[in-house]
Amino acid sequence: MNHFEYRNDRLFAEDVPVEEIVARFGTPTYVYSSATFRRHFEAFDSAFARLPHMVCYSVKANSNIHILRLLAEKGAGVDIVSGGELYRALKAGVPGGRIVFSGVAKTADEIEDALKAGILMFNAESLDELKAIDATAARLGKKARVALRINPDVDPKTHPYISTGMKKNKFGLDMETALVGYEMARDMTNVEPVGIDCHIGSQLTTLEPFLEALDKVLGFYRRLKDMGIEVTYLDLGGGLGITYNEEEPPHPSAFGEALTERLKDLPLTLILEPGRVISGNAGILAFRTLYTKTTPVKKFLIVDAAMNDLVRPSLYGSYHRIEEVAKMGRPVEIVDIVGGICESTDFLARDREMPAVEPGEYLAAFSAGAYGMTMSSQYNSRRRAAEVLVDGAKVRLIRRRETYDDIIAPEMESE
Ligand code: LLP
Predict the structure, then answer these.
(1) Contact in structure between 301 and 225 (CB atoms under 8 Å)
(2) Ligand 1 within 6 A of CB of 172
(3) Strand duo 99-101 + 121-124: pairing
(4) Using one digit for the tens of pLDDT, what is the confidence trace for 126-169?
(5) Under CATH, what is the fold of the domain 4-32+282-411?
(6) CATH architecture of 48-275
(7) 56 catalytically annotated
(8) What residue segments make up the domains of the chain, in order of their start?
């Protein structure tokens, strides 16, 4: 459920017509719904009510500080993967004790910043990283809480680019190496092994891969326990999918039910790192049709958003529903919706049924709240889009459109 709906054929974000937003802020603009963010967070969080748990929203999905603040106010922790995400989370007021730090390439500086912030736990992904965490913690006279990320070798049956828990992936440690890692961690003076971590991929539309991974991780947990290493946190990562088109992913309540069934008698605090399921359908990208062009084989809608704004179609062939901001009931035709970037992969939709849209009309790409703005770039020296947050009838600009000076500013400071 989200709060983008048509009323008399006009698209509304909560109580605000999207036409008003684009008239005021221009295009392309990301428009988010506060009520949808809150609702998705509550639905997810309450699904685990019967277990000790912490929902650590995955910042990479949508990292706007105002969104992080909104979620932190609801009690969310965060999952971060870089010093930049740590910086954002702290600025947004997320307490250090609600931050988990994932990712294969944490630098000594990032580890140091995270230790100083007193984060809950590092999800370490290699033995070398474990040594680096120990060394940095020793230098600072601190003890680092650590989980090792297990690669359970489970096929999440999603797009290969976003599968992370298979043997061939760069993520995590196979179980035998992880056992060595836990022994190392136990013997380190400045590291304390407190958890086990696992994340197998993103946009999963069935529960089976999660449960298969969980079974393997619980087997591993028992082996650790037999070795006298008892952890208290189990981090199962993110990955629950959403509906972009016709997918029917399980509801968070079903996910919660299945995990609760397996974990209810264990002395573990469950951590989850949902990103897309919280933010994906809480945002749209609004843009304007500039031109139409008919060639002997195609019709193109040329629009003012491009792959630098929303790269998912170009990168993964992802589907985003695209509709008019004001519906006129015209007959449909088959078009490609393309941006102005000089690459043939620059498309938002291909061979899509659309009404006969005219230049000047506004369109919206749905399900753009996750991995939209965060994956955007300035390619072709295009300014990144504005971001607007709606709350009931209130509209707030939460990131202004970049200026050309923003684009060149770091170059003006060169020596
Ligand atoms: N935790 C870890 C360690 C992750 O690597 C990810 C996502 C998440 C949590 C959040 O996963 P989610 O709940 O959002 O599925 N750019 C791609 C998605 C990449 C996901 C990367 N890791 C896309 O646009 O589909």
Answers:
(1) no
(2) no
(3) parallel
(4) 999 999 999 999 999 999 999 999 999 998 888 877 777 788 88
(5) Lyase, Ornithine Decarboxylase; Chain A, domain 1 (2.40.37)
(6) Alpha-Beta Barrel (3.20)
(7) no
(8) 4-32+282-411, 48-275
